């Protein structure tokens, strides 16, 4: 019950708190107040305008994203891997259901990397973790889309496992841990977007899992190269995603879902 309340509360909160939407609301409120002769309306209008101006004129999106993507460097490939966990978030369930074909979004590397790793480690279990983030029951799950996609690419069989109950990153960790019950000494890789890795690793550690970060889907280049190349729409999305991750890190730590406020690599994960 508590988990359900928190899930619905997070959806409602982010509906209005996402930076691009919030800035637009501030801008609209400020302009409406100015139109009605309220001089103090220039403050919310200015705040809303400043968000869009900062993303347009500065590398704000990259500045916000780089600390997240650089937190867990990609390690050398292990000699042996017992299992690979791929987090949901890369598939589009509504498009898949509407068009009848598995549809991917900008995080597609999570899905393609799973196929590459499955070939590199033919004995490893491949685990997809993702139910539905929709509050409406009965929706197509991400796990079902992943099943269709991977089957079309030849990735299927007993070693491919699908966890379809989780609705967020914390449930990815707890539901998958309960399903697989990883043992002492096993080597597991965690595949998700680099910017999502700090919160993901923090959750898996808190769930009692020893796991190795295997980041994919980078959106920034080091050293400032190409920071202004993406169009404004993409930079707005990138900045908003980074803010979401930082908000999620704070919220998850306060809820006891991560082992640290900003999880970092360490030499040995707890079993």
UniProtKB/TrEMBL annotation:
Output this protein's name.
YdcF family protein
Q: Which Pfam families match?
A: DUF218
Bilayer-crossing residues are 12-34, 46-66
Q: Which organism is it from?
A: Sabulicella glaciei
What the entry lists under CDD domains is as follows: YdcF-like (cd06259)
> Is Membrane among the key words of this record?
yes
Keywords attached to this entry: Membrane, Transmembrane, Transmembrane helix
Which segments constitute the DUF218 domain? 82-248
Q: Which Gene3D superfamilies match?
A: HUPs (3.40.50.620)
Specify the domain of life of the species encoding this protein.
Bacteria
Q: Which InterPro entries match?
A: Cell_Envelope_Assoc, DUF218, Rossmann-like_a/b/a_fold
């Amino acid at each position: 019950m508590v988990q359900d309340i928190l899930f619905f509360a997070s959806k409602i909160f982010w509906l209005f708190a996402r930076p691009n939407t919030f800035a637009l609301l501030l801008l609209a409120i400020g302009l409406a107040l100015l139109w009605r002769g309220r001089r103090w309306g220039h403050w919310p209008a200015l705040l809303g305008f400043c968000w869009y101006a900062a993303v347009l004129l500065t590398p704000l999106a990259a500045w916000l994203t780089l600390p997240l993507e650089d937190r867990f460097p990609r390690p050398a490939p292990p000699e042996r891997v017992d299992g690979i966990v791929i987090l949901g978030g890369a598939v589009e369930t509504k498009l898949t259901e509407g068009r009848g074909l598995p549809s991917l979004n900008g995080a597609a590397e999570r899905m393609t990397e799973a196929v590459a790793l499955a070939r590199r480690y033919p004995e490893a279990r491949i685990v997809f973790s993702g139910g539905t983030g929709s509050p409406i029951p009965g929706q197509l799950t991400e796990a079902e889309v992943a099943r269709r996609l991977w089957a079309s690419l030849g990735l299927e069989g007993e070693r491919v496992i699908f966890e379809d109950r989780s609705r967020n990153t914390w449930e990815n960790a707890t539901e998958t841990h309960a399903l697989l019950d990883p043992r002492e000494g096993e080597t597991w890789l965690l595949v998700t977007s680099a910017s999502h890795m700090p919160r993901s690793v923090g959750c898996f550690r808190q769930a009692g899992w020893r796991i190795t970060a295997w980041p994919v889907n980078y959106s920034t280049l080091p050293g400032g190269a190409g920071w202004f190349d993406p169009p404004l729409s993409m930079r707005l999305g990138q900045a908003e995603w980074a803010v979401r991750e930082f908000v999620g890190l704070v919220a998850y730590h306060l809820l006891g879902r991560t082992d640290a406020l900003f999880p970092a690599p360490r030499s040995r994960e707890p079993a």
